[in-house]
Amino acid sequence: MAASRTAKGSARSPHVTLDAAPEADWPLFERPGFLARRVHQIHVSLFAELCAPFGVTPVQYSLLSALADRNEADQTTLSRLVALDRTTTTGALKRLEARGLVRRGTSPTDRRSQSCSLTDEGRALLAEMEAAARQAHAATVEMLSAAEKELLIGAMKKIVAAHAARQSKFDLS
Questions:
Q1: Tens digit of each residue's pLDDT (9 = 90 or more) over 69-94
Q2: Which end of the chain has fewer CB atoms surrounding its CB within 10 Å, N or C?
């Protein structure tokens, strides 16, 4: 029988066994996928509450932030940067364009792709909502110590990096 790997941090027990036999008890609140989904739900709720006056979703905020960092990008690059499928990215960008926050047009270097950039209004809104967005991120992990926050962010980055190739495998667009 293979040795079990454990991770500290369960509310019910000090160790969580991740590779126990299928018939073993595996409470929902000890499953990494379930916990990741719940943390995401909590963050989206906090973001929606704190950023409501700006009318921007977390996905739209990610796209605005990516465009602010790059100045200009095609939609395929943006979808990869923010780990979204192309259909979702296109829909979000169309909504941002309708609000006058993003400019979209045919790329001068590749007529098949859409080039995107922030408008002055988009830059202004992003700057205006920055404090509220940062507050939502801080509220998500406020109960953690500085060391725990660093550990959590490091662990999440490691997971994302290890599974980076998965991003495109489920792009159904």
A1: 998 999 989 999 999 998 999 999 99
A2: N
